[in-house]
Amino acid sequence: YQRRVHGMTKIACIEMKDGSSERGRTLFEGIITRSPKRTDVWSVYIDMEANLLGRHKGTVDRLRQLFERATSLQLSFKNMQSLMTRFMEFEKRHGSKESQKRVQQKAVSYVERLCPEDAE
User: Fold this and answer.
1) Measuring CA to CA, which of 4, 7, 42, 57 is 20 to 30 A from 34?
2) Whole-model pTM over 0.90
3) Are 23 and 15 in contact (CB under 8 A)?
4) 100 Cβ partners below 8 Å, 6+ apart?
5) Tens digits of pLDDT across the chain (120 residues)
6) How far apart are CA 103 and CA 115, in angstroms?
């Protein structure tokens, strides 16, 4: 199954880069639907979408939605930290102070869920 996911991810990348970005998105969506906690796939999907920034209308919003979805999953601290860091970097470049504050609050909420006794 691991090899199959890797192969499908490669095909999705090729589609997004050289073929139809919509077909690539459809492939990525299928992969993350079947394997939602595969942060490696989420990361590649986010990278491929980021490569389209400026070339396709609505890409900033689509990328923000991807980050929102990925950071809403129940992931390990290490994986969530990586995604949150990337999300904040994205918002610093393409968002507003308000959007950065939302990401920061999302990170705080995640940590509070992990360590509820420290939140008091």
Assistant:
1) 57
2) no
3) yes
4) 88, 91, 92
5) 778 899 999 999 999 999 889 999 999 999 999 999 999 999 999 999 999 887 777 789 999 999 999 999 999 999 999 999 999 999 999 999 999 999 999 999 999 988 876 544
6) 19
Q: Which two tokens stand for residue 25?
A: 């998105």
- Per the CB < 8 A criterion, the answer to whether 45 and 57 are in contact is no
Using the structure block, give the residue that is written with the tokens 């490669």. Answer: 10
Which alpha helices (H) appear in the chain, and where do they start and end? 2-18, 21-34, 39-51, 59-70, 77-94, 97-114
Those residues whose C-beta lies under 8 Å from the C-beta of residue 87, and which sit 6 or more positions away, are 67, 71, 103, 106
